[in-house]
Amino acid sequence: TMGDDRLVEQITKQVNKLVDVLKIIDLTEKSHIDRELLLVKGFAQEETTRAAVTRVVAVFQGAILHMRRQSYSIQLVCST
Known about the structure:
Blueprint: H1 5-16, E1 35-43, H2 47-59, E2 63-67, E3 71-79
Antiparallel strand pairs: 1-3, 2-3
């Protein structure tokens, strides 16, 4: 996340309330890799739509994580 100290502190407090969070580390002053992740679940009943989705995923260098007859899950990752 990005923001001033007050905003980061508020986000840290809220995230710490989550049960599955074990530890939060502030990487502001440390070397790190920064990425954004988009996970999308879509539905397509026609084969032409499914083919178009496959082409778009390829253009954005994404990955189809799971594809069924009428649904699919897509992952797009971007380094910022």
